[in-house]
Design brief:
A hairpin with a 2-residue loop joins β6 and β7. The protein contains 17 helices and 15 strands. Helices cover 27% and strands 19% of the residues. The longest helix has 18 residues. The radius of gyration is 22 Å and the shape is globular. By secondary structure, the chain is an alpha+beta fold. The strands form 4 sheets. The protein has a 4-stranded antiparallel sheet with strand order 5-4-7-6, with helices on both faces. Strands 9-8-11-10 form a 4-stranded antiparallel sheet, sandwiched between helices. Strands 13-12-15-14 form a 4-stranded antiparallel sheet, sandwiched between helices.
Amino acid sequence: MIWLAVSLVGCEKSESVLSGDVVQGPAVGQPKDMRGSGMRGSGMRGSGVNPHAPKGPSVPDIDLDSKDILTRTKVSPTVHVKHVLIGWADLLPAYRGRMDPRAMKRTNADAAKLAQEAAAKLKAAGDAIDPIVKELSEDPGSQTGNPYKVTEKSQFVREFKKLALRLEEREVGIVKATYGYHVMTRVGKPPPDALESVDILTRPKKTEFSEVQHILVGWKESPAARDPRAKAREKPAAETLAKDILAKVRAGGDMVKLMKEHSEDPGSKDTGRAYTVTEDEQLVEPFIEIGLRLDVGEAGIVKTEFGYHIIKRTKLDPINSTDILARPVAAEKAKVKYILLGWKDGHIDDKRGEARTREEVDKLVKDTLARLAKKETKFEDVMKELSEDKQSGPAGAAIDVSIQGLPSMIRMLGQRLKVEEIGVIKTQFGMFIIKRVDDATPMQMPVPKPRPTMPKMPVQPKAPAEAPKP
């Protein structure tokens, strides 16, 4: 089955497990050639966003949780918070090689003392909290000076989200999660950058899902910037370049050509790849906000920890079952089975997918649909024969589309299918031929394979020095 847990990657935030296979490389959770720069990072999108991450040894950690805040019944729908992440050596397994060197030398008692000191400093600092965060926090994403936007649907670890949504403005609280103590304060909504497309960002949403192409332009102070060009560029130069590129895009310039020439997003600059955008997608918040408000063919700019994103909404890929996606939701908890077929620019490390061109995978999808329409072969048999998901394929497994962490477009299609109906959706992992099955179908959940320790990728936001985010 498919599970997505947030890590800290490019403009995308992800670490994903497809049927137990950890699809992670330099940009954990992304296919090898798709480390993007729009994905939320460090758990918090920063340092605690991975509810499935392995935890360190079971030890009696010191309890600093702000229970008076955590037990409140008043919950805000949307908040902005800043935080200091403080880890300690016993949590090393959760970091998978990305722990801050300071934390590796620290005991739980040391971390608890430092967390209490950080809380006292934040309370006394008033509005001048950024220097404290920059000095003490081990979540790189938190050091940008930009707050995290948190909602009930945000992909943050449960403890982080629970505290954030209960804080009053300027209040400080502490909660322990997978990666350590989060010393957190609620702040006001930050003003937009002068270059951002405020006219677009303040519109109502135009759609629940879209596909966009983008060009990333960073500068040396961009916390998540990795490209040498960005590291050598001052912000005024980045502003000039971003405005120039936007003008070319709006004038009808070739987006793929401009991406190859200017973009610093390693997940799309060389391929012209379009990102799927939904409310729950593993993408930094401003990227989602503009992606759902653009008209098809329209372009705008947002700023994130990666830099400026010049984003253009494109037509949905024609392979998608757009007629089904246009329907209202038929069932929130529909059960589905799927056949995963990759190609060289979207796969999960299966040799078949790695070798296919886009034209070849499109033909295979078409031929497979025609074959299934004849009903001479069971869907499960085709799964075993063709699917590149090494667990659900051989097992013929069904999954519930409401499970947390499922790629959002798979969920959206599955919720709109009729029982026994088949549709297709394109994702960064490949093409999914999805069939909705009867709700009485047993959940044949395969036993997950052990998850290997993988090196983290540099790109998107937040994670302790390339560590997980909250």
